[in-house]
Amino acid sequence: MALGLPLVCYLTAFLCNDVTGCPVPSVLHPRSLTVAKLRKETGWPKDGVRGLLSFKVTGLVLAYYFISLVLLNVLPGLVVQGVKLRSGGRLEYKFNGMPRFHPRQNSAIAILGFASLGTVLQGTDFPLWTFIYQNYIQIMSANLIIAFTLAWFVYIRSFTVKSGNKHRRELAAGGHSGNLIYDWFIGRELNPRVKIPIFGEIDIKSFMELRPGMLGWILLNLSFIAHQYKSYGFVTDSIILISGFQAIYALDSLWMEPAILSTMDITTDGFGFMLAFGDLVWLPFTYSWQTRYLAVYPFHLGWWGIAGVLAVQGVGYYIFRASNNEKHRFRQNPRDAKIAHLQHMQTQSGTKLLTSGWWGFSRHPNYLGDWIMAWSYCLPTGIAG
Asked: How far apart are CA 63 and CA 61, in angstroms?
C-alpha cells in the first residue's frame, strides 16, 4: 500500500496526459510498446526520475503549509474539546476554517480570497494557476515527501509516550502491534502534537485532516478550469459542475470542522502514513482526476445532462451529511433532542453504537453518500469517453 498507492498516482498522471492522450496510445497497443516510445508519449521528464522533484516547487509547497499554519494560529477561531480519551480528559482543538466562527477572519476565505483577487486582476494568467498546472507532478512529489516525513517523525516520536503523562498523549488502540511496518502505516500515536515557537501547540492530525489537502483540492480544480479556458477560450458546464460539487464538499467539511472530532480518524486511528498520504496526496491528487481530464478533453453536458448529474449529487450529499450529523450529535450528546429517540447498543469496550436511524440501515451510510457523490463527479467524464 505504501508503495503501490503512490505508484497509482504517478501512473494516472503520466498515462493520462495532454501530450498524446488519455490513455496514451501505447497502452492501447502493447505490442508496439517500447520504453523510448512510452517516455515520449507520457511526457516523462528529460532528466529522468530527478525531474519528478523540484527544490523550488517543494519550497513553495512548504510555504503553502506554513501560510495555512499561520492562518490557523493568527486568525481568531473556536476552541472545542474533543471526545473523552481512554486515559481520561479531553484535548482542545482550535478551528477557524469557515466564517461560521468569525466572519471574514478564517483560513479558507483568506486563501481562496487571495486566489480570487489574483484571478480578477490577471485572469487565467494569474501565476498561481500556471504554476500548479505546469508543476503538477512536482507538487505531488513534494506532498508525498511531506507525507513520508510526517509518518516517520510521528512513528519515532511515539516511543516517547509514557502512560499517565500530563499532556494526555496516548497510543492508538490498534497502532502498537509490534510490527514496525504496520504500526508506521496505521499510526502508532493517537493524537501527536508538537510545540512550535510562536505558534504554540499544533495537533498534527487535525491540521492535516482538512487544511492543506482539502483546500489544495479546490486549488487544483481551479487551475484546471483556468487551463481549459486558456486552451479553448471557453469553460464547459461539466468542469464547472464537478468543481462546484467538490468545492461544496470541501467547504462543507471546513464549515462542519468540529465534527471531525467524533470521526474514527480522530477518535480511533493513529496518525501514520495511511492518514498522512490520504490527506496530503490521495485526496487532492486523485479526487481531482475528473477536472484534470476535462481541462484537456472538454465536454458539454447540456441541460438534461446537468439535471441528471445534479440529481445523483443531491441524493449522495443528503445521505452523507444527514448520517454524519446524526453520528456527531449522538457522540457529542446522546440526549440531544434531535437524536434522543434513536436506539443504540452498548459495546464490550464501553462505547455506544446507533442501531436505528441512518445507522440502522447500514454500517457506514456516510460512505454510501460519499460513493454516490463520487459517482456524480465521474459521470461527465464517463459520458465524454
From this structure: 5
Backbone φ and ψ of 202, nearest 5°: -120, 125
Residue 39 CB partners (closer than 8 Å, separation 6+): none
Per-residue pLDDT reduced to its tens digit, 277-325: 999 999 999 999 999 999 999 999 999 999 999 999 899 999 988 888 8
| pTM for this prediction | 0.87
| Mean pLDDT (the chain, rounded) | 88
Quote the percentage of the chain above a pLDDT of 90: 48
The amino acid present at 192, given as its one-letter code, is: P
- Residue 99: its pLDDT value, please? 58
The alpha-helical segments, DSSP class H, found in the chain are 4-15, 25-28, 35-42, 55-74, 107-122, 127-134, 136-157, 180-186, 204-210, 212-232, 237-255, 264-267, 273-277, 283-286, 289-296, 302-332, 358-361, 365-384
Q: Residue 90: how many CB atoms within 10 A of its CB? A: 13
Cα gap 241→384, rounded to integer Å: 14
Look at the block and give the residue holding cell 461539466. 238
Count CA within 13 A, CB hemisphere, residue 233: 0
What is the mean pLDDT of the segment spanning 220-232? Answer: 96
End-to-end CA separation in angstroms for the chain:
29
Q: What length does the chain have?
A: 385
Q: How far apart are CA 385 and CA 83, in angstroms?
A: 46
Phi, psi of 94 (to 5 degrees): -105, 130
Say which DSSP state 189 is in. B
Cell, residue 166:
500530563
